[in-house]
Every structure is written in C-alpha cells, then in structure tokens.
TrEMBL record:
Protein's name according to its UniProt entry: Aldo/keto reductase
All copies of domain NADP-dependent oxidoreductase, residue ranges: 19-263
Alphabetical list of SUPFAM superfamilies matching this protein: NAD(P)-linked oxidoreductase
InterPro entries, A to Z: AKR, Aldo/ket_reductase_CS, NAD(P)_OxRdtase_dom_sf, NADP_OxRdtase_dom
Source organism: Dorea acetigenes
Amino acid sequence: MKTIYDTFELNNGIGNPCLGFGTFKSADGKSAEVLKMAIDAGYRYFDTASFYGTEPYLAEAIEDSGIKREEFFITSKAWKTEMGYRQVKQAFEKSLENLRTDYLDMYLIHWPLPEEGYTDWKKLDIETWTALEELYDAGKVKAIGVSNFLPHHIENLLQNCRIKPAVDQIEFHPGYTQEMTVEYCKNHQILVQAWSPIGRSVLLGNAMLQEIAGHYQVSVAQLCIRYALQRGIVPLPKSSSAERMKQNQDVFGFEISREDMFRMGTMAQTGWSGQHPDTGSVVAPSR
C-alpha cells in the first residue's frame, strides 16, 4: 500500500480502499463542512450509518465537491432497530435516499444483537442477512458485510446463508486488538475494518506508543493507523481538523519494525470503548 487509494481485494473481487474516513459524530454541527474538508483533503472512502445521522450531510458534501459518485466508496450500516428481512430492506432504501445515490459500495449489519440479552439473535441475523444477499443479487450494493460480529455470530451466517460476509468492521487499535476475531476473519477471507483505530486520548498519551512514534518521527495517531495497515486491516480514522485529516493519510512513508509490532500488539488492554456485541455498553454510549 502506497496511498489511501490503493485497495485490499474483498472475497468477491471488489477493491476496498485501504484507508477511509469515519463519519461518526462528524456532523455534530448539523452541517456538511467537516465532510467537505475531508473530501478536500483527499478522502474518497467514507464510512457512515443510519444511526450516525451523517448520510444526508455526506450526500451534500459529495454533490458540492463536483466529483463523480463513481470516484467514491460509500459504506453504510443498518442499525439495531432496522434488523429483520423487511425492516432492513426499508432501511437500505432510506439510506439510498439520504445519500442521494442509487447504489452503495458496501452495506453492513451494524450489530449482531438488537439489544443486550436478546436470545433469538441467530434467527434475526439470518433474516437480515438474507435480505442483504437479495440486495447484493439485485446489484444495489457491491459488497455486503457485518460490523461488531464475533466469530460465533459469523459462524451462524456461514452455516445458514449463501454469501460469505466480505468484511467485519470491529473496534481495533493497540490495546484492544480482538485477536481471536481478527484471526477468524483472516482464516475465512473476511477483511477486517477498524473503527476507532486510534483508540482514545489515553492511547495518545501512552508512554510506550509515544516512544515508538518518536523513533519513526510520526504522531501516535499515525503510528496506530500504520499498525492497522501492516496487520492487513482497513483503518477508518475520523477528525474535524483539516491538518489531522491530512496527517492521518501520511502513513505510507515508514514501516513499523517486527519488534515494535509485537510490542504494540501485546499491550495491556487500553482505550477500549466499553462496547461489547453480546453484553452491550459497559462504559460508553452505543456507537
């Protein structure tokens, strides 16, 4: 990978840009300005979701850019309340309407359970996934996948459905690498995407990460993004600063050594959001 426009190949042959822009809370000011800045900074891969409320602002930013829709890679996700065969199809059409497009590059199930303790999740996930398969068959979406699914959630789909998920989007960063899920996905040709690849402020102030970043003369954020890329994982950083948007792309001019990769990958748990697919929110509000 040499630029943000290079791609990982999905299991259906589609190219997935190796670095994207996360839109969670990127339009808190109820405007498209942050997303316009991201486009100006060079981003073409945008990750959104119905829950984020950023779909209309992303549509506005893309239209105002004057850049063709085909040059963008857009992912959206169906929220917990939109699961189910009929409900997810309606949610998909609403996302198309919000994004002012007639297709998506990728569509994901946002979480495997609609609520903590939900016991009939296997049946619900199958019904939801079946609808995504039909959207894919109809050419309305180029790739389908999941988000925050653990191996036992994915197994349920693999054992009962026709199409293998192309990606699994999970929280991933030094201090919370979810090794079993990453290894499972790798073994099943499912590309991992990283939400919160930089973790939280506690990571930015971590002494070991600061020391390693200093060795490469980069920021801790750049180090964390590069770490994901070297693991073959697509990072989806977000920022409201034009300077940091550009800095977060400048991660192709250095390579983390094998020793430093081991050090980063074996950190004590640090910077976890508190979100767990089966038990709900432990610390922070739902993403």
